[in-house]
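Box 3.1 A note on notation
Throughout this textbook, protein chains are presented in two layers. The first layer is the amino acid sequence; the second is a token string describing backbone geometry. Keep the layers aligned when reading.
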Amino acid sequence: MRLKTIIFLFIGFGFLLLHFTSCNTFNNTEVKQFDAKGTFAELDHLLIQLHQIDVSDCTNLDEAVSINEKMRGIIEDVRSQKEFDGLVNVFDADKYKISFLVSQDKQFGVFSWTTKMDCLGHHIKNIALYKSNNEIKTSSLYGNPLVYIKITTVELNNKSVYLLSGKESVDKKPSVTKGYTISNGDLVESQIPFPKQSSNEYADSITRY
């Protein structure tokens, strides 16, 4: 009789333990749900803080570096295609201060912002997110950072090439176009010819997502 009681107690304890474990797993899943709008709101909040920093005479650089690192961490923490798609679906260029350009095929996107770290030689930050092998990868873009304002997708040798058009500062006219493609899971700079346009034609063709 005593043995049966002990067995029933163990079984009951096991059910309770399983119940609490399931609840904790469910709660953790809820906590970890990705909030695309919250992500943009957080990036905008940090960007506002960044722009309020006085970096004249190269002061307060530690604070500027810290905020830029937080922004970089938030973007690089986007790990799944579902999270990336969430960002694409909620982004509104008229609502958010951070720049986020997305290719027409929604496989490639670029975040850009001014860092206020001119004294360190880093005026603009560009971080690309792209889909590869059912996951999202991140990459800082090669070469001189630019303020990107347009992405055009062209097909070359059965591969999508993303042409990023940008300028060296917010008050300059677009002057530079760079090509990138995804090869073996990596983002690779692609040097390809593309038609040149006059500055007026170029300006008329600019679109933003």
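Residues 12-16, 24-31, 196-209 have pLDDT under 50 and may be disordered. The chain has one domain: 34-205.
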